[in-house]
Amino acid sequence: MSQPHEPQEIRLVLRARFAARDIGRLLKRLREAAQVTQAGLAKKCGIPYQNVSRIERGAREGKISTLNRFARALGYQMEIVLRPIRPRPEDTKRQGDE
Q: Helices 38-45 & 64-73, crossing angle to 10 degrees?
């Protein structure tokens, strides 16, 4: 029998265009590491199991409250941090500066 999953801090930097997909992949990874089925997670969170699948695939954006329920059911605390946007070097190049 495997050892219980010990949660570790996980940081995810979201790119606006891919945020739903990135969050979904992370949730799937956490759920599988905890050896919990989609149906089991859905039951713990009080939502239809189809919603877990849709969120994991990035086909549906989960509400923050739903994502928080997922995190807590898997032994994590969800935190949201907002930081100022720093321009990337390639965004600051002017045309003709090659």
A: 110
